[in-house]
C-alpha cells in the first residue's frame, strides 16, 4: 500500500499542515516579530470629529486623507476596499476612516455610494474636518511626507493604543501604505494588520494564563 497517495497529500496540505502551523503559533511564547510603532500616541480623530461618533482608541484603524480632489482618490479607495476592507470586515473593532475637508460632503457621499454598491459600509467612516484640523491630525503622525492639497496616496495603520504602526529597516521607515499599489496593500498592509491582530491575541492569551496561574 502506498504511504503517500495523491489524495493523502492533498488532505495533508489542505487540513493537517495548516493545523500544525496554527498549533506552533498558538503555543509559542513571543516567537513572532511585533509590528513596529513608528509614531507614538498620534492625535485621536475624536478630537476633530464634530459628530463625536468616531474614535481611534481601542480600535484597529486604517486612516486615509482624501483631500480636496476626492475623485482623484476614488480608485485608491476601491483598491483599499477590495484588498483590505473585505478581508477584515468581520474582525472585531476594525474600521477604515476617510478624512476630507469641510465643503466636500457631496463628493464624499458620492464615493460612499459607489463603494456601497460593492460592500457593506458598516465599518467605513467618513469625517469632515477643517483644513486646520486635518493638518493637525496628519502632523501628529510625524511622517516624512507632506499632504498634497490635504490628501495623500497613503493609508495609515493605527493600533488600539492610538500609535501609528509601520515598518522599520536600515534604509527607511514605512509610515503609510501606497493605495495605488495593489501589491503593497496585499503583501504589506494585509500582513501587518494580521500581525497586529495576532499581537492582541497573544497578549489576551498571556493575560488569561497569568490569571489561571494566580488562582492555583
CATH architecture name: 3-Layer(aba) Sandwich
Number of helices: 5
Q: How many structural domains?
A: 1
Task: Profile the largest sheet.
Answer: 7 strands, mixed
The computed structural class is: alpha+beta
Mean pLDDT: 87
- Rg is 20 Å
Briefly, what CATH class?
Answer: Alpha Beta
The percent range for strand residues is 15-25%
Order of helices and strands: HEEHEHEHEEEEEH
CATH superfamily: Glutaredoxin
Coarse shape: globular
Proportion of residues in helical segments = 40-55%
Low-confidence stretches: 23-31
CATH topology heading: Glutaredoxin
How far do the termini sit from each other?
50 Å
Tell me how many strands there are: 9
Provide structural commentary:
The protein has 216 residues and is α+β, with helices and mostly antiparallel strands. The chain has one domain (37-209): Glutaredoxin (3-Layer(aba) Sandwich). It is 44% helix and 19% strand. It has five helices and nine strands, in the order H-E-E-H-E-H-E-H-E-E-E-E-E-H. It has helices spanning 6-27, 70-88, 105-116, 131-139, 182-215; strands at residues 37-39, 60-66, 94-101, 124-129, 151-158, 164-165, 167-168, 173-174, 177-178. Strands 1, 2, 3, 4, 5, 6 and 9 form a seven-stranded mixed sheet that branches. A two-stranded antiparallel sheet has the order 7-8.
